[in-house]
Specification:
By secondary structure, the protein is an alpha+beta fold. It contains 2 helices and 10 strands. The radius of gyration is 25 Å and the shape is elongated.
Length: 182
């Protein structure tokens, strides 16, 4: 029961109540309800997992120089950002190491640099301009579907996810990968 969602609910702080007897009874009832819900989920092959995470993204684009006298030269661009993630996964085991599920995640930008790009004329060396790229929104929510296959020895996992971004109905992302445990 350590990894179950019920564990979070069992640790509710009931000390704010005025009556300690009511407090203990309420805590016991909450614990019983959470235990029952977790047992029903696990016996039906469903697995509910909350998660927290952090990520760091770095992007480097090379500069471009047009090959004619009247063209432009564009500088290199480096961009980076760090994010915190909180989410919830619901997976259903289908057997033979195969599981399908869904997930929802909230991500918030912890920090990022505002990348600069410099544009210069090839004709007049002094004619240049620096543009500071605005970063996108600081937070977003995604939702999606997932597929997982875990090899019987548990060392290999093949996965695929497809997700949509809640603020942009026409934006989707997907990933396919292999994980190895050592």
């Amino acid at each position: 029961m350590e990894n179950s969602p019920a564990r979070c609910l069992m640790e509710i702080n009931f000390r704010r109540l005025n009556h300690p007897v009511t407090c203990c009874k309420a805590a016991y009832m909450a614990k019983q309800a959470c235990s029952s819900a977790a047992q029903q989920l696990s016996s039906s092959g469903l697995n509910l997992k909350p998660y927290l995470g952090a990520s760091y993204n770095y992007l480097k684009l090379d500069g471009v120089k047009e090959d004619n006298l009247y063209g432009l030269t564009v500088s290199d661009v480096d961009a980076h950002e760090a994010k915190y993630h909180a989410g919830l996964r619901l997976d259903a085991a289908l057997g033979n190491g195969v599981a399908v599920g869904g997930f929802a995640e909230y991500a918030n930008k912890a920090g990022s640099g505002k990348p600069e790009v410099q544009i210069e004329s090839n004709l007049a060396a002094g004619a240049k301009s620096t543009y500071q790229v605005e970063t996108s929104q600081s937070d977003y929510a995604i939702y999606g579907l997932s597929f997982n296959y875990t090899h019987k020895n548990g060392q290999w996992n093949i996965f695929a996810d497809v997700a949509g971004i809640s603020d942009h109905s026409d934006s989707y992302q997907g990933q396919v990968g292999v994980k190895a445990a050592f």
